[in-house]
Design goal:
By secondary structure, the protein is mainly alpha-helical. 64% of the residues lie in helices and 0% in strands. Component of the protein translocase complex. Heterotrimer consisting of alpha (SecY), beta (SecG) and gamma (SecE) subunits. Can form oligomers of the heterotrimer.
C-alpha cells in the first residue's frame, strides 16, 4: 500500500470512540447486572410456564 492512501481503519473508528465515550447527563443509566438478572428472571419464568402449562 502506498503512503498516500488512507486505509480509514483508525481514523474512521475515532469518531465512534468519541461518541460512545461522551456522557449524556439526560441518559438513562442501567446497571449491567440488572439487565442480566432481568433476562435470567424472564428465562426462568418462561421455562416454568412451559413446565406447568
Amino acid at each position: 500500500m502506498s503512503s498516500g492512501q488512507n486505509s480509514g481503519g483508525l481514523m474512521s473508528s475515532a469518531g465512534l470512540v468519541r461518541y460512545f465515550d461522551s456522557e449524556d447527563p439526560n441518559a438513562i443509566r442501567i446497571d449491567p447486572r440488572s439487565v442480566v438478572a432481568t433476562g435470567a428472571f424472564f428465562g426462568i419464568a418462561v421455562l416454568l410456564l412451559q413446565f406447568f402449562a
